User: What shape does this take?
Amino acid sequence: MNSAIRSGRFALECILVAAAVFAGARAIGNDYVFFAGYTVLQFVVLATAWNILGGYTGYVNFGTAAFFALGAYATVFFHKFYPLPVPVLVAIGAAVSGLVGLGMGYLTLRLRGAFFAIATLALAVVLQTLVVNWNYVGGSRGAYVIRPAEVPGLSLPYIQYLFLIMLALAVIAIATARSIERSKLGYGFATIRDDELAAEASGVPTLRLKLIATTLSGALMGMAGAPFPYYIGYLQPSSAFALEYAVNSIAMPMIGGTTSWIGPLVGALLMGTLQQVTTVTISSAVNLLIVGLLLVGFVIIAPNGLVGLARRASSQR
Amino acid sequence: MTAQLLEVERLSKRFGGFIALDDINLAITAGERVGLIGPNGSGKSTLVNCVCGTLVNEAGSVRFEGRDLAGHSAHQRTRLGMARSFQLPRPFASMTVADNLRVPLLYTVNARRRVLSEADIAKRCEELLTLVSLAHRSRHLPRDLTQVDMRKLELARAMATEPKLLIADEAMAGLSSAEVNDIVALLIRLNESGITVILIEHIMRAVMSFSQRLVVLVSGRKIADGRPDDVMRDAEVERAYLGQ
Assistant: This one.
């Protein structure tokens, strides 16, 4: 009971911070802030989602782009088939990607280590091939998704509306991750990361927990992808399945720290902002290079990420 | 109804062309203290793994309290009341010693009956740690423990599941003679509180002082089963251990 109250309070605090972020962004009064902020927040959601599987249970997923793209393509599909409001599309994206996460889990979770990672990479390739050959959603040509001029029922510019939705998703993702961490489920996930045989011997139903992790993680990634077509305006398979999603969603938690919800948040805010800055000041092609170099550096120097560094510093004092 | 707690019937397990267990029959009565011995590679740990669901046996059956365990995964068997410690300690490395014990309490004891409150869990962790004299280590990480303490943690975590049957797989390897006595005494105390114990061990002094019954495996076959003194006098056992 107590933990439910604490989780509730934490969610409330997140909402307050999010409201302050939105008010701050509006106070700056420049649309670019919303465009850039949307991307950073999207990475907060993706990194947090990746970490639920990759950080908590230790199963490295290289298929983030696939789950993200599923959410995005579900939106493209409904945009043509029967237009729906974005929050509904977000729920649909979550359902589609969550189901695929569950299915992927069933097929691949008997694999461990590198084999699991390769299987997730293969999933991304298979799904991309399917989408490339699916004419209805644009195939390899891509699809134009013209965003409505304004938001029905709200007097907000559309980009601010999308920003607000991504902000809400970031709150949901972080609140979910944190409540898992403090729960029985969090203990179970950690035992899977540490030693699956010993976990089973202690009564932990490891397969079921891993399926919960892939489903939750996939669903959150799909949620992040659902508003994307409206953000970008023109969606093609190579941008939805882009390497940068897989790489960033691994690198950000690694750089921030994988064992707690703060790590992916810190990593995504830092790296996401850094990438926006380099895109504007240097070039967009430099992005992945910087991510790669930082990732290599952190894996060698600080395997527990920034959070690990901070903890070590505070325990030595 | 049967008084047998564990019944292993015609159990066989092969790894490729290698027959690890060949037609093993074994019945354990509730409340017994059984020693399981055999040379290295004789199949002791494989037998434990088949009984506990870590490995799947190709032939034969394992029954626990009369229930056929085929298709039961390891965690389900743990919840039914079967606990084991591992030959090489396998602690949850990222968790404190106390949290290591919290896992079986959350996932096994809580799954079985009324849910323990947070305070109950903390209390139970402390009791278990006191039992194996690790209480002063509760906030440490497993990597800070000595080999002896690691083995005690391994036993405490198995006991935290509140088992009916405890299988201790070489819980004493590498311990000093006083430490061996400690663990034997602990296992006997557990047995007196109603837990059936199977002890797998190389240290004969410990096995002989602990066991009411001795089972000997050699090359995947059971070659002896009976009172410890009789078993040790058995010609076949002598041959297996000392050679001809």
In short: Residues 2-28 of chain A form the longest helix (27 residues). The longest strand of chain A covers residues 143-144. The mean pLDDT of chain A is 91. The radius of gyration of chain A is 19 Å.
